[in-house]
Amino acid sequence: MRRGVANRTVAEHFGVPRGTVGWWRHQDRKHRGETYERPTDCPRCTGREIDERAYAYLLGLYLGDGHIISKYKQHHLSVFCDASRPGLINAAEAAMRQVMPQPKVGRRQKKGCVEVKSYTLHWTCLFPQHGPGKKHDRRIALEDWQQEIVDAHPWEFIRGLIHSDGCRITNWTTRMVGGERKRYEYPRYFFTNKSDDIRRLCTDTLTKVGVRWTVLARGSDPFNVSIARKESVALMDTHIGPKH
Length: 244
Fold this sequence. Notes:
The chain is α+β, with helices and mostly antiparallel strands.
């Protein structure tokens, strides 16, 4: 093990559980007074160049349907995806691997959704918005380095937000044409989130890329950002498109 042989290889060689080999290694380090530091490829801690496009998309997913567990011996980023959208599930996993390739990534099937998880305590370095309680109950603001990435890749950020808490639907209405009332259908995008701060991040970025939006209140709560103008929907279709 001191020569760098992996725990799995040692365990297979001696026919003992990997946990036993891990304990041997721990005891050996303790005996020699060594402090173990788990290796990481965290861009914030190592200075490694981050994949900005993947990060902007993953940031949108995190702000919508993601959370971080950061406890003793339990550290992971989770993004919850609609189980009927395999393309979204694959995109979430790919983004995690592109941002930090080293941590283990897994999937957990739940009722109606799939939880995509990446295991490392360093996700809190990349998402300083992590904190106790629900996102809509606390202030959410991007740090300067995050805003720079969003400004450089606004469509990836918007795509992550729409893929998490948004949708593309077909609305309909009726209008009089030649004295006859006819049904008229048109596409529309929605982004729905209870956090005022997250909705503002969405609308500010939409404005920067030239998308016109409005807010529709559900009761007295303005949770819905609507994009219905033809030219704005066409712009969204070019860069976002429906979830799949």
